[in-house]
Structures are given as C-alpha cells and as structure tokens.
Amino acid sequence: xxxxxxxxxxxxxxxxxxxxxxxxxxxxxxxxxxxxxxxxxxxxxxxxxxxxxxxxxxxxxxxxxxxxxxxxxxxxxxxxxxxxxxxxxxxxxxxxxxxxxxxxxxxxxxxxxxxxxxxxxxxxxxxxxxxxxxxxxxxxxxxxxxxxxxxxxxxxxxxxxxxxxxxxxxxxxxxxxxx
Length: 179
Prior knowledge:
- It is built from no helices and 17 strands.
- It is mostly beta strands.
- The chain has a 6-stranded antiparallel β-sheet, with no helix packed on it.
- A hairpin with a 2-residue loop joins strand 8 (71-76) and strand 9.
- The two termini are 27 Å apart.
C-alpha cells in the first residue's frame, strides 16, 4: 500500500500497482493502519467527525460507523453485521485482535466490546476522574488513552494516561503516561 492522498471529496492510494479511488464527501482525514492492513477515512463538517470508514488496502469497505445515527455495519468473511449504539464517540476496529470497541457517552459504562461476528463480549467501566479519549493498539494489547482531571495530575501537570484493556473482561490496568 502506498501513495495515500486525499482531498475533501476523494481518497486514493495504490495497492499492488492498482489505483484505488474512494469518492467521499467532506473528508477530514485519511490514514493507514499497517498493523491491520486498512485505510481509515473520517468525514464530517467543520472538522467534526460524523462518519468513519475502514477500507481494505484492495478497496473493499470493511466497516462503516455513522456516529450521529448510532449505526455501525461491517463485513467480515463475507458476512454482514450491524449494531446500533447511541451517542458514539469513537470506534476501534482491531482485525488482528478480532474485536470492535465502541466508545460511547454514558454514565458508568463508556465502551462496549464485540467480537468480529457481532457477539457482545463485555463493557468497560469508566475510571474515576478520567475521560476516555481514544484507542492505541500495540502488538500484544489494546490501550485506551484517558485524560484525567486535576486530581490525577503529576507534579508536571500531566494527566493523560494509557490503560491496558483486557478485551474479554473489560478490565483496565494503568500502564503509564500517554504522549
């Protein structure tokens, strides 16, 4: 996969000497995930992401998330799966780890984890004094980056931390500062 380029209405790249073109409205950003071998396209207006698309390097749409309407659909092994979740903030599509994690706005439980077949695995409870921000994937685990409040700051006023996620239980383990 090479030569990823995007404009407000088109995302394109080259894969196996073939030019892949994905017309899209209001593209904010397009990026490559080399670990899972896909392209992520975020669209919306005024730099607010409303829709997120995941495409294989060959141009097949793997997952679509409409944050405003709470719709998520994905295609794995030629099977279509759908789920609806209100108040979606972010989504993580982790093909190598065989899970989808949806961050959503709620009181105590702020993320839900599904396997690639659409089966519910668990929910992730909010950590006191922290807000979930985004996901980071490492070779052997997934982390949720959280921003703390003044009660969680260190002496240098840093409060952004990584929490290692157990995708089967939803348990979180603080692993240190996030940069």
